[in-house]
Design goal:
The structure is a single chain. This protein is α+β, with helices and mostly antiparallel strands. It has four helices and eight strands. The strands form three sheets. A three-stranded antiparallel beta sheet has the order 1-6-7, with no helix packed on it. The radius of gyration is 82 Å and the shape is rod-shaped.
């Protein structure tokens, strides 16, 4: 029992010493921090830390590189073909040559030749004499004169229609006698290029005493 007590006393004395040592160390550390001595010791032992602030520069979006320049191909020059022109040797000649290149229009056709027309005429051989139609009263009164009548003849030579008075003789009896004579005469018809055609013609009828 005594042995256990001695052992227990020594155990507690060691623990007390250890506890005191810890308390002393803490008191010393607190004094050092309070007096600034610890800070000086740290500065002496360890040099001040140097820091360098590196600014993080954000890279800007760089534009894409420009396209390569277009290379223009030089134009290919084609040499003109060799043209050989054979110029004829001018020869001395008196012939007339046509050098015009314009279109020459053909001359218009010649107008048709006008037909040859022969007017109608009196067929004296087959016509009566004017003496047969001389009015007796005019003969007794020595009445004379000339009247112009218009006769129209058919293609066969016969008188077409009644003759008309174109110019008076100055006597009604002689004018009527001339028209009456005209209805019994024969005519030579008018012709066109030798072909008989109908036509009218003036005739002078004279009444003269013999």
């Amino acid at each position: 029992m005594a042995a256990y007590a001695r052992h227990d006393t020594s155990f507690f004395s060691q623990r007390a010493l250890f506890l005191v040592a810890i308390i002393v160390i803490h008191i010393g550390l607190i004094y050092l921090f309070a007096s600034g001595l610890a800070t000086r010791i740290i500065h002496v032992v360890a040099p001040p830390l140097e820091t360098t602030i590196v600014q993080d520069v954000k890279q800007r979006d760089t534009p894409p590189p420009p396209p390569p320049p277009k290379m223009e191909r030089p134009p290919v020059e084609i040499p003109p073909p060799d043209v050989t022109i054979n110029i004829p040797v001018e020869s001395q000649t008196t012939a007339i040559t046509n050098v015009t290149t314009k279109h020459v229009e053909a001359p218009p056709p010649a107008p048709p030749r006008p037909a040859v027309v022969v007017p109608a005429s009196l067929d004296i051989k087959h016509s009566p004499s004017t003496d047969d139609y001389y009015p007796p009263t005019s003969i007794r009164m020595n009445e004379t004169g000339s009247a112009v009548i218009k006769l129209c003849a058919a293609a066969n030579g016969s008188v077409a229609g009644t003759p008309t008075l174109e110019k008076s003789s100055g006597s009604t009896r002689l004018d009527e006698a001339a028209i009456k004579w005209g209805t019994h005469v024969r005519m030579k018809p008018a012709t066109s290029d030798g072909k008989p055609i109908g036509g009218c013609v003036p005739l002078k009828v004279s009444f003269v005493l013999k």
